[in-house]
Amino acid sequence: MKLPRRVPWATSAELDTVCTWIYADENDADAKTAAVNRLSAWRAITPLPHALEATLSLLSSVRLDHEFRSAQQPRRHSDVPNLKYTIALSVRQAYATAIVRLVNGLVDPLQLGAFARSIAAIAAQIGFPQWLVELRHAATHEELPSLELLRAGAKEALAWLLHNYFLPTLSASSNNEQSSPVIHLSSPSPIFKQYKYLLKAITRDASLRTQYKPDLTKVLRDVERWVGEAKVAASAETFSGLGAGEQGEVDDENERWALERLCEALLERGGLVPVSGKKRLVQNSKTLPVIPSSLVAIWSPLLSALRSTHSSFLSVLVSSITKSLLFRAPALNNDSLQKTDLSYELCLAAWAAWCVNQSDAASIEPPLREGATSLRREDVVVGLVTALCARECDKNTGDRQGARALIDLLVHEHPYLKDVADSLSLASKSGLKPGQKWLDKDVLVMEERLQSLISSVSSVSPLDDESDQIIVLDEGLSTPQDDLPKGWTRVPSRLWKACPIGVFNHC
Amino acid sequence: MLSAIAARKAAQAVKLAAQHQPPQPPLEKVQLAIEDSVSDSERLETIFQSQKSKRKPLASSEVQARKRRRKKASKSENLQTRYYEQNTEDSLIESLEKEPKDIGDESNTDSEGEGEGEGEGEAHFIGDDGRSELDCLFQGHRKVKRPWSPSQPPPNSSDEEAAYEPGSSMLAAEEPLVIPPQYPRQQDAGFKRIRTLSFTPKLDKNIFHVDNCDFGIFVGRSGTLIALSEDDTIALIGVYSMTVLQGTVSFMGSDLYASPTISHTVFAPRCSPIPIIKALAVDTSVTSDNGLNISGKIAQLISPHCTLVFFEEISTGVEDLGKVCKTFEGTFDAEAYGESILRLRSAKMILSLSRSMQPFQTPASWQIAFASLSKASSPNSDILLERQVLVAMVRGQKRTGKSYLARTILNRLLGCYRRVAFLECDLGQTEFTPPGFVSLNLIDRPMFGPPFTHPLLPYNSHYIGSASPLNSPSHYLSSIRALMQTYKIDLQYVSPEDEVLGSDGSRIDDVIPLVVNTMGWTKGLGADLARQIEEAVEPTHIFSIQNPSGDFETGMETMKVEMQTLNGSGNNHQVFEVEPISVGIQSTRHSAADWRTISLISYFHSIPSMSQTYLLSTSVQHHNDFSFISRSAPLYSWDCRLPLVARSPYAVAPNVALDSVILIGAGSEDVVPSEIGRVLNGALVAIVAYQPDYTEISPSQAWRGIPYSQGADPPDPLTSRCIGLALIRGVSQLTPFSPPLSSENTDGDTLHVLTPLPPWILATSGARCFVKGEIELPVWGMLDFREIERDGARHDIDGIPYLQWSKTEAAGAERRRVRRNLMRRGQM
């Protein structure tokens, strides 16, 4: 089950109060002090959302600045605290730290790829003011910016937090139908197009290899960057506010989502499968489809690069291919298209077989890596066979020649798998056929199974009566009140009603 | 189902093999036997079957499997027929297991389904099934090539001792002893796990149900007697009491000798390595009559050469912790895995270990280190002759099995010593207390089970308040030094007046050795802290677990028993480099945070029994008369009938009951007095007692009766002691501008406090200080599990204060997340 998150406020009304203290009147120093005190208290209760933590440190800098300024005016010297040792540098440092931490904290959760994306790019994606990013850079690596600039930066940052954290949070809790911000995700196809162009040139003329090397590296990085962006988009789609322990799982899901989108683009015509029907397969091989070696030479560098950074890539690719082979709607157009579709499917099948072979070759070496999404020939075959049989049963949706070809490709050098595939398809054929009727016998078998399931569940319960003994033990331990230290009394359990932690029960 | 058949077959095959051939490496044969016994047709069936039961929990892909399970949950419910078809054991477990995880996941599944196209094919396709069986076969093949079989049990410690040069004095040895190179190589051996258990249960042949026992001291007790032949292995899941009646068994790294008066309580949940009971050879030359008078029909059936173990069911309530914290739900439940042939309600016997279960096995290098330890504890060892008390320290990186090693050392020492002290320095994964404590515990019996199954009151402890000493290194160190001082003054040498315990003869009881567990933070500041701890502890033996990611080849070469003599100080200690244990499964299924959660939940639901008083400082004992309590009574039990929200608390008047309230942790200095009620509301606080003569603390500011002093230092460990943790579940007034106080309590707030600490501890300790650190009550502890069970935990239980169910899309709404593995472009 999905756990809620712990927040320091009892209701969002309390957050609203703090928001009012901060933003209602810019010059109300007392309200700002109240906000700082409240946020400091919240911080001691539970780790704050990053936006609130950033707000706290911005506010405390603003307050320090305010005190510093009033201390510099001799007339009001009497009623301000002694700031003898505060120099402008302290104030600048306070501002600078607040801004640096704000930007880092906003950007870091979105660094989802293996490689760092530029902060400016991420900031642009979430609509964060560019000049604050520059201010961050200056404050971190260059001359510490001037007080004037930092003041303006803090003001802008607080305004940005109001519009991007406080208002959405408060309105979300009052009105759940809040539209989530759409994070833009471009198609990776142009990158692939450029990649293909480069590789075609290299494979035709090996002497160009060194010349094009920088370009090729750049394209591969572009792909990697695209995956990073897609992960950000994925985290917007899938819920990521899970408990801390499940963060890794969420990352995995995001990565899978991103890779699936990538594979979709790869499977388009002009991707792994050339546009021209003639280039798709080796012409003379009659029985099993084979991809031409020139095609392999073009795509294998990209595939192996992706695979080295994303261990699950091959399995995602194969799963995308099989999905496409199994469930692609039969071509509605005329016959000629249907025909080219066949070679498209066969080419995809050949690619999938290529992936499985690659994965097999690699998996001999290292032992099962913990959690690695490994691709297994057996799983693919069995999955395909069962899916095919199930399909056959409900309706006749074309021949699915591609899928059949893939099975043949996968099993033809593995006689024992061939047996499995054959027996599986036999088994499911002998199972329920469309015309076959339900027999009472079948229901009986199922009932029997249900019974055994229920009985094994219910036999757990007898332990319950044991808990009565614990009651006795409990009562035995709770000695009379006078044994308790001074100031401690026990609230009688008969007066006690359950109420949430943090709510005082006046009983 | 299939695996059970295979296991039985395998076991039979072993028996056959054992009859015909000398039983050289028995367990290796098991693997081969599986291979032989599974014919081709069965192999096909295996694949087919397991394909159907696609919810098989698997070790290597546990994480993904879980993920997929969640995705598939709704689909499988639509496919009713398939659900019924899954009649295998594994699917049963899965169906039991998955319920809680899927609760409230519907919305998620929908959106995920879209991305998957028509999920049916997908589900088949990514199926991870059949892997265990196939792997079994493949591994069998590979195995043949390797001469050394890691599944072969390591020689027991007595052999080890013989192999050693007994004359070489431990403290004076000049030459480092290098362990012979035929050592297992962990890399490819993968520390081959036991998968099959060799014991074949046959009712009334080697398993006997005993009702109202009529022999010896067991009169009136009911249980199950098991007769094991040499090298038989058996494993149970659940909670059970185990008594060795005849022979010796090897259990969780310790050897348990026949001792009818000692029953061991064992907690064997699936979430931690499964303890394997292995019968060792029975020494028939020693026919000791230990009050065992087995009568009647059983006596005739039992050979004097077999090992006899008596199992009894016990009810502790620990199983119900999974009800509160669903991440551990059903972890003691072996119904679907186990055989009920034992007729015990709290435990089931398992016939083979599925991939999701890891057996508790100690690497061979541990055994070697243990051997030297038991040598040091033998009555005429040098260490004892020099009146030096054994102090064993465990160090190593996180996730290398430090706490397993420390616990195993503790259990082994309890075979030789009457009592053993345990110093916990690992704040994140504490053994006996909730997280955030450094503690000194006195232990008088072996602890078999993961840490959350033995919440003990500390002999002395100090609250650091965080899962890491990062923010308060000096307080952390001074706390450890203070505990070492307590150990040296109060515990190390038992004064004659304390020896009213009555000696049991066989075990040393005039000194108390110490086991020290350290933290896994071994880099940077952590390394510096570790060095200072070592100086404070002055260990005689150091068990250093190697870095698992390091180069194992070089690791093997340096694996030796080396001697380090520090110049001049005379500070001798022996260092053992030992292999890390593979905690693979544990680390994927439960994170360190999960273990902290269950530890806290277990603590607040525990009921410390009066018998713990013998393990507490004498000041507590002198205040009370506990002579009526049996020493061997259980130390604790659990009560999970009510969630924390429904428990009646103590009402504490802070102005009367408390001298000071202190906040520790980074940033807590900024909490102003008017906000203290808010901060304490729902907080976990440590209850701290000052020494009677300590009057220095005088809170400068009190807020509505709460004696809070802003920015105060944590209590000085030398003059204070922490007795435990409490939850302030409610504060009467939170807002500064509240209406006048109620008539009965005119001068301050009321705090509603929940704590498992028994009143006699609260009363005798004189604890008048609350310290709040960074450790929080887990969210599971704030929920009412009865509501979750009733309503199916939909998201609409909104309205619980301080919890937020809905996701906000706002920027920066998440807690800060740190990435340390981010690479730059140039690194590609």
TrEMBL record, chain A:
Q: Which terms under GO biological process does the entry name?
A: maturation of 5.8S rRNA; maturation of LSU-rRNA
Under the heading InterPro entries, the entry gives: Las1 (IPR007174)
Q: Which domain of life is it from?
A: Eukaryota
Q: Which GO terms describe its molecular function?
A: endonuclease activity
GO CC list: Las1 complex; preribosome, large subunit precursor
Q: What is this protein called?
A: Las1-domain-containing protein
Q: Which organism is it from?
A: Phellinidium pouzarii
TrEMBL record, chain B:
Q: Where is the composition biased (Acidic residues)?
A: 105-120
The record, for Pfam families, names: CLP1_P (PF16575)
For this UniProt record, give its keywords in alphabetical order, as a comma-separated list: ATP-binding, Kinase, Nucleotide-binding, Transferase
Q: Where is the composition biased (Polar residues)?
A: 77-86
InterPro entries xref list = Clp1/Grc3, CLP1_P, P-loop_NTPase
Q: Where is this region: Disordered?
A: 46-128, 143-167
Instruction: Show the GO MF annotations.
Output: ATP binding; polynucleotide 5'-hydroxyl-kinase activity
Which residue intervals define the domain Clp1 P-loop in the entry?
396-605
> Does the UniProt entry include the keyword Ribonucleoprotein?
no
Q: Which GO terms describe its biological process?
A: cleavage in ITS2 between 5.8S rRNA and LSU-rRNA of tricistronic rRNA transcript (SSU-rRNA, 5.8S rRNA, LSU-rRNA)
Identify one Gene Ontology CC term for this UniProt entry: nucleus
The Basic and acidic residues compositionally biased stretches are: 95-104
Family recorded in the similarity comment: Belongs to the Clp1 family. NOL9/GRC3 subfamily.
Task: Name the chain's protein.
Answer: Polynucleotide 5'-hydroxyl-kinase GRC3
